[in-house]
Amino acid sequence: MTPLLFIEQLLNGLQFGVMLFLMSAGLTLVFGVMGLINLAHGSLYMIGAFAAAAVAAATGSFILALMASLAAAALAGALIELTIIRRLYDRDHLDQVLATFALILIFSEGTRWLFGSFPLFLDVPAALAGPVTLPGGIEYPTYRLTIIVIGFLVAAGMFALINRTRIGIRIRAGEADREMIAALGVDIAKLYTFVFALGAALAGFAGALVGAIQSVQVGMGEPVLILAFVVIVIGGIGSIKGAFVGALLVGLTDTMGRFLLPQVFALFMEPSAAVSIGSALASMLIYILMAGVLVMRPRGLYGVS
Amino acid sequence: MSRETYLNIATLAVLAGVPLWAWMADEPFTITLATRAVIFALAGVGLNLALGLGGLVSLGHAAFFGIGGYAMGILASHAQSYTPLIEVPFVIEGTKSMIVIWLVAILASALAALAIGVLSLRTSGVYFIMITLAFGQMIYYFAISWPAYGGEDGLSIYLRNDFPGVNTLMPMQFFGLCFAILCLVLVGMNLLQKSAFGLALSAARQNETRVLSVGMEPYKLRLVAFVISGAITGLAGALFADLNRFVSPTMLSWQMSGEIMIFIIIGGVGRLFGPVIGAMIFILLEHVLGGLSEFWHVYLGALLLGIVLFAKGGVIGALAGREKAHD
């Protein structure tokens, strides 16, 4: 194992982590403010990716594709919030799980009906296609590096939005005491729609960015959704900071585990067995991490008890 | 007798009657559909103990369903290839005996439920949902990346396993076996609901503080319920794998957890026969809508949404009225 490869894998882990943050931020806000568990968040991720792939195919512009992903996911988010989700806020979690599971079925099959079962492809824009040489002579794909930078920018933007703006104050107030801020004259229904659409837009944006690395297909959202759950359980539900730390932790643990564990097992095992045991264990590593965090802190790293 | 009791008897009559008719009319496919419904009902009855009675919204029950399935798959695959399961420190052979397979499936899924339950039950509410989901996924990914038993492709078993005195390859006889198990479990569940344990568990769902204050521990009650619940779902998984003579990671997937939950919701949460009616309707929908359109999940989704938003209590709630207050 060379140090160059190690650093490349670290960067991959970081890129995976910031993507997970884009997914988890919306999920954790929606839960923190509205008390809603939204399984359909993965569908919004998928909608963003499909919108981007369709627009990129039609116009050839990656920037337009990204904007389409933001708009389509935000629109879909606002639409389901207005028609369905808002009926679920004061229901119990079981109802929320089932209704949003029903939404997944509808969105997934609807997308399959519209676009077919074959994966679509979204090309990395030409300007970002090649590798870039980092200090120390590391060659790394420009596109992945851009994703990392975008991820950190969005994270900074979210912190600023939550901590520095009027809307952020309202969101935090909504987390603390829903009835009180409604009584103070804030239009809570509008705030909810905004928060939901914002989370949806971030998920759709993540879908479009990842869609250019992987293929765009039905069902792409659910594995990421479950990872996002792991992230916010680790970080503490409702906390943006927790989502950020948790996302990086999960991204790095998963990537480095898949990279390092087979090599560690190879030190004292025959190679084929080391690869199969190492990769099987690596696929479980983040869940073991989650279990560990739960034993120490049942409410997550930054959760309030 | 209450209307719910009549409804329950009618449900059992339909569930047994349809395959009997199909047997006379020589329609083995219908018998297989009914067997699927019975097995799904059993899985649902298992989850209903945790979900309905215990109030534990577990979105990871596919883990137990799949572990039961793999218990069957692993034992039977070793038996059909005549290779021992392990050789050191002592030899364990595979088996084609259903009774042994069921016991192993029950034990394995109960142990898994114990391990998952000990950790997950430290939390509650939405954390519990997400954690059970995450542990379910952990086992799913483990099954996919573990190559010894088929990995992503799953495991095929050539012949259905043996039960003394029954020709399990005859659809009607296998149906009878599954139906008998379902009835036994339903009787057991009925007794359990009325037992001191069942009442305490139900009380812990309704008012945790009061249960604590009379000196019982909700954590222990829930853990026991979760383990029994996982074991029943695991048994259903072993039967399901035997029905298909195939087991694959799909049985462990979280969509499976969602489907088991759907059976309960369609039928009625916390009702003894809720999952039974729900599984029957689900199989019927799958068959009828699946024949109409390739995209039948859209209709299933819409129906589910309708039930959740407008018809709480499911079919039993609609037909037999709300549950009587227990006083």
TrEMBL record, chain A:
Protein name: LIV-I protein H
GO annotation terms (biological process): amino acid transport
UniProt subcellular location: Cell membrane
Keywords: Amino-acid transport, Cell membrane, Membrane, Transmembrane, Transmembrane helix, Transport
Molecular function GO terms recorded: transmembrane transporter activity
Name of the encoding gene: livH_6
Entry's Gene Ontology cellular component terms: plasma membrane
Pfam families: BPD_transp_2
InterPro entries associated with the record: ABC_transp_permease, BCAA_transport_permease
Originating organism: Shimia marina
TM segment ranges: 16-37, 44-64, 70-89, 101-122, 142-162, 191-213, 225-252, 273-296
Membrane topology of the entry: Multi-pass membrane protein
Main location group: membrane
Entry's family note: Belongs to the binding-protein-dependent transport system permease family. LivHM subfamily.
TrEMBL record, chain B:
Family annotation (CDD domains): TM_PBP1_LivM_like (cd06581)
MF-aspect GO terms: branched-chain amino acid transmembrane transporter activity
Localisation per UniProt entry: Cell membrane
InterPro entries on file: ABC_transp_permease (IPR001851), LivM-like (IPR043428)
Membrane association type: Multi-pass membrane protein
Chief location bin: membrane
Keyword Transport part of the UniProt annotation: no
Gene Ontology terms: cellular component: plasma membrane
Protein name: Leucine/isoleucine/valine transporter permease subunit
Keyword Secreted carried by entry: no
Key words, A-Z: Cell membrane, Membrane, Transmembrane, Transmembrane helix
